[in-house]
Amino acid sequence: MSLLEVAGIAGGYGEADILRGIDLRIEPGEIVTVAGTNGAGKSTLIKAIMGLVPRCRGRVVFDGRDLLSLDPEDRVGIGIGYVPQVANVFGTLSVLDNLRVVEGVAGRAARIRDMLDRFPALAERRHVAARALSGGERQQLAFARALMSRPKLLLLDEPTAALSPNLVGQVFALIATLPGHSAAALLIEQRARQSLAISNRGYILDSGRVVLEGPAPELLGDERMARLYLGGG
Amino acid sequence: MSLGVHGVNKSFGGLRVVDDVSFQVQAAELTGLIGPNGAGKSTLFAVISGFQPADAGCVRFDGHEIQRLSAAARARLGIARTFQVPRPFAHLTVRENLLTGARDQPGEHVFNLLCRPGVVRQRERQIVARADAMLEFLGLTRVAGERAGALSGGQQKLLELGRALMTEPRFILLDEPYAGVNPVLIEEIERRIRTLSEQGTGFLIVEHNLPALARLAARLLVMDRGRLIASGTPAQVLADRAVQEAYIGGGP
Amino acid sequence: MSAAVGLNLAVAGLIQGLLIALAGLAVSLCFAVARFPNAATGDFMTFAAYAGVAAQAWTGSLLAGAASAVLLTAGLAVASYVLVFRNFRGRSLVAPLIASIGLAFLLRSVLTFFVGFDQHSFHVPIARAIVFAGARVRPIDLWLAGTSAVTLLAVLAVLFLTPIGRRMRAVADNPELARASGIRARAVMLTLWTLIGACSAVGGVMLGLQTVVVPEMGWNLLLPAFAAAVLGGVGNPTGAVLAGIALGLVQALSTPLVGFTYQTAISFILLIATLVLRPQGLLGRAEPVR
Amino acid sequence: MPVRKWMLTRRVLGQAGAATALAAVVGRPARADRPYRIGALNPITGAGSTYGSGMQKTILFALEEVKRAGGVDGRPIEVYAEDTQTSPDAAVLAARKLIDANKVDAIIGTWSSSVSLAVLPITNEANCLLLHTSSAPALSTPAQNPKHLAWRFQAASHQIGDAYAAIAAHEKASRAAAMAFNNDVQIASVGFFRSAWEKAGGKLPNPVVYEPNRTSYAAELQQALSEKPDFLVVSGYVPDTSIILREAYEAGNTAKIVIPGWAMGPATVKALGAEVLEGLIVVDAVPDAGSAAFKTFDAAYRAATGNPGSSNIYAAMCYDMVAVLTLAMQKAGPSADNAAIAQVIPEVANPPGQAVSSFAEGRKLLQAGQKINYEGASGPIDFDERGDVTPVFGVSVFHDGKLEQRYLLK
Amino acid sequence: MQGYLTAVGTVGGIYALLALGLNLQYGFTGLINFGVVAFYAVGAYTSALLALRGVPFVLDFAAAAVLAALFAWPLGVMCLRLRDDYLAIVTLAFAEILRTVIVSEEWLTNGTRGIPGIPRPFSGLGAAAGGFAYLALVLAAMLAGVSLTVRLVGSPFGRLIQAIRDDEDAVRSVGKSPARCKLVVFMIGAGLTGLAGALYAHYLTYISPDQFVPLLTFYVWIAVIMGGAGRVGGAIAGAALLTLFLEGSRFLRDVLPFVSEVQMASLRLAAIGLMLILFTLYRPQGLLGRVAR
Questions:
Q1: D-E interface: how many C-beta pairs under 8 angstroms?
Q2: What is the ipTM of this complex?
Q3: What does DSSP say about strands D372-374 and D106-110: parallel, antiparallel, or unpaired?
Q4: Is B2-88+151-248 CATH 3.40.50.300?
Q5: In this predicted model, what pLDDT tens digit does every residue of E208-221 receive, in sequence order?
């Protein structure tokens, strides 16, 4: 059984649909890239899985449970973590508080120690308000916060956007370690090549629909993929 | 006539989104601006159109420094822009959206409304005629009376283009005009842009649909992580190794 | 102005400021987490004062009276959340604001329906003031100041030192991210409204102890409370407390300059000036554009 | 008050009047076909609510007394009640309703100057009498009261001010000070106090004007006491006066404090206690506790409300309004219009004439063609040429938690 | 009875004018003005003071409207570039400051003594005809307010206002200034409110500071919310409903014999409060309104 199964999900915020029937699945421990042009509905897809899209129809099954009837906070409880693209930390809270705030974590103190061990930069600045962190530190904190609840699936919305090149590498390295922590990841990425390189499979969205899907190596070699991005370059 | 940015910097909360960018765009030379997400293209648009103040540097239009002008004043000067995610007036009809874009409607001042109703009516007739022609061109005539919020994303993109054109701009900043628009219409829009460009309207276009942009643009600018990393003809730019790196990401 | 006069004014201003701070804290908490200015805060205070007088008459003990006032008002605040304000999630702040004005009217008229418009008062021993370095300090002032300060600190402590307070600040910071971090809104909101009720209740009882208990007493303190909440930086509870105290002091110390009639107006003039010169409030952080 | 009872009263009054009217029609025709209608316009709610319902009840039982005494010859009386909400807007609409819908000939019992000032143009225009309990000087100026239809039953501000000065002299004050609630009446009365006191050779620093609804008046008090006065007038209302009295005590004040009677309620005594109030001087156009009219009023008021008559000076005024109005109607005759009735008001209320303390007594003497002088529950009720009552002030002092009347100022 | 109905109609008409002003500001443009009573007072005092100095009525009324609008100008300039709710707080504070000024600056306003003897137009016609003529004047002013609103809303200016409510940035992008439009609406609304104040002052012939309390602002809000924000008919219907309600409770006592008059006052306020809550919860668009945004 798949970890996440999305079938015919459609919906949006205002009157018009942004998602127009998307099918997608993620197996346990798998990294899946979702790419596509701006406005294709990538962020909306992630938010819909998280339960943050007001109008949403279709079927979303996670770990055998129907998600659409659950509140976002309850989806966290059954093993979904979420790192939004912007505003992904509580700026007014200290680094430590950003981690402590997560509810329903068994052995929280130990888990926080784990996280600080894993992200030494955060450990150093644990009493600093999160809004004072650099872009890279913020991203790490957002990861750490999402990982606190030991998610089985991590939803990542363009985690490398606007990061400096060496940080981009770090973030991808970090994502690559997730399966080792028995977490699957759904990754939205603009840097499709780097992202697919660490992914098992990928989906390409356009106008709220899946236009291309397949195993990551295949997609990387697919000339349609290159054309979509570089006009046959 | 030209539009230029000189040494523009813009940061958000310690993150430098636009990093010392300078370039000059001639009206006669249709220009595309490309780069991966987060490269700072939209922020640069916001700085040029007056929606964000630059931290440093200046913006020149037609030889004048304009960075002190409000967004509305820049639009009146002839710099029109569209938004990446369409922002129609959701509760107005499609036609009303276009009417709102028209310039020189004295009826938008209460004094004229009460004291010169004839002038207002006459101008309104002209504007409606222009709007209807615009609807025709955009293929939106069928939905002219519908509320703009009910349109599909692609239709909203078109509407927004039309609204910008209604301001009779001399220079247009288009933020992803093709996103969500069907291919037939893309060619249609392309033709129109080319016509306008030939008539002397300047264009700076951000677009991810590179084939379409490459057909249209005489020149491409490439941004990555806030910096301008390349510029030249489409063929030159797309062959550039650094550009490919920035776009799809380098190999492992 | 002699030093003694100034000192006495400062004492009076401090007491007044602590009262404004309590009300301002209740307003600010609500604005930060529930995201609307609660115009019923003043009438929560009035309710608390009446409840306190009644409970004191019944039990004969001021402490018991005050304690029951806090409990009852906290219950009232929670009930108003459950019955009214909970239903405004996702609407603009105007709707809950208008509803809170309605709630204010409703509360006050239910009070006057049953107890009428007559003046009531707490029974407290009245004693001569202690003269201390030229300043007259009434024993009751010390109690009022002490209790207000302890309450203010306690509320801030809940906010900054407890898990639920941390969650509350997270919701205030970014409600969507809070939900996506698994923070349950219900517990946070119930705690929030309990705090709002308790804070208003202590303010109401203090006000009743210092003055007299009449139906309009809390409503009259609402504008200064709003002023404190805005001056302190919208949604910044610590700022609201400091701004409330500052407002009280400024009002009192400005009287030699502007006279007694303009005393109250001073805080509003300050408020407008602050909004114009520093829209984010004196101690506020810049609000992200929404 | 239960409305059903009130409606009953209204109907009974009407019927009783009608019977009287029938009897009278035989002798004198004229206007007797139409009852004389009185509008009781009182502050049932709002700031004046402490007094309003007592005032309304008093008007009803006073008219009941008139009816029991046989009524006004040839004039049945009806009464309609309305609430001013102590707000000029609401009062104007209520007055309009009374005059236009209920066709009243007289409006009695308005409280607070802004209400009376707002109602006065309406009554004036409709040739309607206005008997009020407000003290604003403007109410009896020729500009506002051109037809002389408005009559003041409350001491005017200048009279209260003079009374403060007289008390200060009586108490042998050397340095006086004053505080006033920021409204027309209170500022005017301490203003008059100041001019009277300075005319008598005393000196008074600027009165401290304070705002309502403050949480503390410590600063105001401090300023008022800064010249170390031995005599302090605090001219305000119940809530603010309670706070000021307590804070004055806490601040160790030694000056004698004088307050007007309306600023003192049963709640004040309960809240402050004997020690704080000890020595407090209360001045009021007090019902002459010895007068017969006051005794009758007091008994009826206790029966109607359960409180002593002395707790509501305005109710006593309303009692006198009914008596003076009905006596004047009696004297002017059944065909008289309001101008004629107004003209004889001083004739029934002022000396010379035999002193009477009720409508019943007065009616008998008037029927016998004698001159009368009504001596009322709220004072002797004598009007000056402007239509203002010239009151007698009672000065009382708190001692051992009780208010003891010490002397009268005439 | 006719005279009473005339009076109710006059007061109701003045409320309707107030509601029209606020409806223009809040209903159509989303400006949260909690200082209605301040502009009302400016109008009332301006007109009263001028009339007492012998200025003709027409000029008094015009000056009241203009001055009220001018008072709105600096407030609008200060606030309209800030967040929506700042205007609410600033106008609320402005109303209190203004009341203090009226109380304190006796040389101008006669302080707490108020201004008696304000002349009333048509008083020469006698009580009945004069009252009726004044009612006609108030209704004419109300109709002028209605036609102004209708004209504004249906005009290119009204279109721009609606566009501003949808997306201010998009309005800027087509070269129009949202702040200017909002300021104009704020001033026009204040002008209508000032005119209402003038009509009130001359009707009552006496004004004092305690007639201009915040409760009045909330009454006007209640009228707009109940009637339906953003609808011309809504403002009128709301004002009518409010007047009916406030006056009707005078007669309600007769059918509720177990309620004392003091309690009746409480019930009146309680009902208003409850209606506000229920309307915002269950019918935010008001009686006649379209769906609130």
A1: 112
A2: 0.84
A3: unpaired
A4: yes
A5: 888 898 889 989 99
